[in-house]
Design a protein that fits this description.
The complex is a heterodimer of chains A (about 280) and B (about 300). Chain A is mostly helical. Chain A has 10 helices and 4 strands. In chain A, the strands form 2 sheets. A two-stranded antiparallel ribbon of chain A has the order 1-2. In chain A, strands 3-4 form a two-stranded antiparallel sheet. Classes of the chains: A mainly alpha (about 280), B alpha/beta (about 300). The structure holds adenosine-5'-diphosphate and magnesium ion.
Amino acid sequence: MKPFKFDFIILPVFGLLLVLAFWHAIAGKKIAITNATGAIVEEKRVGLIPALPNVIETWQSSRPYLVEPFAKRGEMDQGILRFTWYSLILVAKGYALALLIGTPVGFLLGLSPTFAKMFDPLIQILRPVSPLAWLPLGLVLFLGAGKEAGTWGALFTIAICSMWPTVLNTAVGVRAVPQDYLNVGRVLKLSPWKTLTKILLPATLPYMFTGFRLSLGIAWLVIVAAEMLTGRPGVGGFLWQEYNSLIYEHIILSILTIGLVGFVLDRLMGLVERRFKTA
Amino acid sequence: MPFLELTNVSKNFGANSVLAGVSLTLERGEFVAIVGYSGSGKTTLISLIAGLTLPDSGTVRLNGREITAPGPDRGVVFQNYSLLPWLTVAENIALAVAQVFPNYTPAQTAEHVARFIAMVSLTPHAAKLPRQLSGGQRQRVSVARALAMDPQILLLDEPLSALDALTRAVLQAEIAQIWERDHKTVVLITNDVDEALLLADRIIPLTPGPGATLGESVAVTLARPRDRKALNHDPEFKRLRAHITTQLLGYSARRQSTVTRNLILPDILPEDLDAPRVTRRPLRPHELKQLQVASSE
Ligand SMILES: Nc1ncnc2c1ncn2[C@@H]1O[C@H](COP(=O)(O)OP(=O)(O)O)[C@@H](O)[C@H]1O
Ligand SMILES: [Mg+2]
């Protein structure tokens, strides 16, 4: 199709409407069966997938969570942004941990062939392990923390799952530092510390930020799983609880929130990353 | 005792013999130019003197002491620009100054840096990043950085090859002028015989590799300061030029290949951080084209 005015806004909206229409079409709806006197004898859901709430039901049921996004009505009954906020705080902590550990490990991998040979196979084995597999281990590791075991287990899981892109991208970046720059450092007899701060770090920064961005995406993926299993308040915990309480509308609300927040986070990191690309 | 002395130096990369039996002696204050074809091992030779690579056999001595590591007593102007792209002109030079004069106060460092920026007439550009400068300006910064370290010897690896003819002439004059001031010992690598004649006391051809070695050195007795325009009519200049050119062409005839006088130009673009690190410089677009042309023929 030829580009036209405002196609950047009209086409996505059109796509969204198509998907909403499809959803609505396959979703169920409630009907009431009445007897001859008009009294309701039975209510039931019909449709292709009767249990799936339709668009209107989802909207009506989500309204209170959206119009009062910061309300706190109970431990597991709070505005959606309040839940998001809890999740974000946990993600921020786990992510910070991932960067704090991942960046130096990446530097070591990039700088030392011996270190790389020692740990590269291990990293390749640990990298594909799912957060669902890490979490129980995390809970076991922090059994001693008592009530806080869930939090620490979740942090551990987020950190270990989201660390790998940072580790690997940093390592690649360090190996890609042009030999010419390193030669300058050698001619000037820069100390190891100065070589690191004046040459290696600035030259690696663009790679590091690519890693940071990918890591943040993973951290946000992991949070839902972690909250589901530990039952912490947050978007993921909310989602799981509403599934158990048969309020399926809120599953969809949570999914959309998670997706939207993930998208915004990625864009923000993308902006930061671009700044360093041109530097 | 000679100031710089290379004795029977050989260097191989894997099975490739790049330099074989290179011997060279330099007196303090001498300006020596080494001319040779691209790929013959000129950069390798400079790296050996700089201590960035060590010879497989033979020794390199500066002031009688064997060179085993690089150090700021040998100021290097690299063939590829090696300014750090995240530092400004002043910061690039200050990094070098701080290494060589660690006892300077910040004010002294700034003053020292400013002096050398002024020497290459870049004062208005001191706060710019390398990518905001032209190729000639960047190479001036490289020269200023090398000089600011007050090295015992200056190693220039094709510093002007990447520049257009006019900028090149200006910078040649600048280098001559700077050298007149303190007669530092200089090894200049170049592929331009005129440039060598304009600047050097002595010109040594490097035979083409593999197993390149230095040819017979030619003393340049032209009076200084040398004026480019006047030189063109100087019979001695013409004689030297013909002599060296014939010598170089003789090597190439033996090598059975045609070589244009305009040899390979180094890249003048800033380093691409996305490119993977290569110990050898990557092929330039025009070299790639040459390769493609060659292989399609
Ligand atoms: N680090 C290296 N590893 C492998 N080969 C190299 C290396 N450095 C130089 N060479 C080879 O040595 C030869 C001379 O290179 P170089 O000294 O850069 O030549 P020049 O500076 O005269 O153009 C080339 O054939 C090049 O491929
Ligand atoms: Mg070279």
